[in-house]
Please model this.
Amino acid sequence: MTDSKHVETELNQGVLTVTLNRPDRLNAWTETMQGQLETAILNAGRDPKIGCIILTGAGRGFCAGADMDGLQKISPEANAPHRSSRPVIADPFPDAPGPGVESLFSGRFGYMFSCPKPIICAINGPIAGIGLVLSLYADLRFAACEAKFTTAFSQRGLIAEHGISWLLPRLVGEAHALDLLFTARKFLGPEAERIGLVNKALPLNELLPHVEQVARHMATQVSPRSIAVMKRQVRAAYFQSFSEALDTADQEMNASFRTQDFKEGVASFVERRPPVFTGR
Model:
């Protein structure tokens, strides 16, 4: 593999596994990795053959944070302001069902929230800084019990970057979020599960088999249209009142009644057979 191939992809039975691929550096984050990851997820979100995306790391780590070589090149005298966000662009998935959310999440990883496919993070090893932030934009997170977590920012003289100050308290509560951000202490998978940062912590040898089972279920046994709409509903609801969320649900439910997936969901239940969803 070439040095410039910082992300690898593999498609199997409707599940695309996207692997951060700098194992010699614990998959430390680079601008090349950022561009390749965004391309992979944008392409997967538009591909009807893909029902679910798994994001993991090569070797013994998930992502150890920003590459230190890159951080050392940052000049304190630089006049250009730092920007963690890419420009707000039109919805990269204009044909996806459900409310649009691209304008709500314009940051470095905002496209992951608007991606109509479910994204599952399999945290197989050390995860820090921007690597931890990246995982928060996934829809589900599973971790190896042995995986070491840290926010890292305060120990580098940095701040809560890339939207983690908004995302982390919503996942684990303000008290846990401030603890992890202020101290930058290291903690393991079981604590990540206990505070709600990950859905489940498992022994390392069970992690990928479990995640692949969950991914295959979503890719084959549930309506991809339903997932796409619900994913966007939940993210849009962060900025809605309860009444607005109800109105969105009413509109989307009425649209669902007219789909092939609704007819197939009812028919497969009545006929006691596995569903064959098309996303239409």
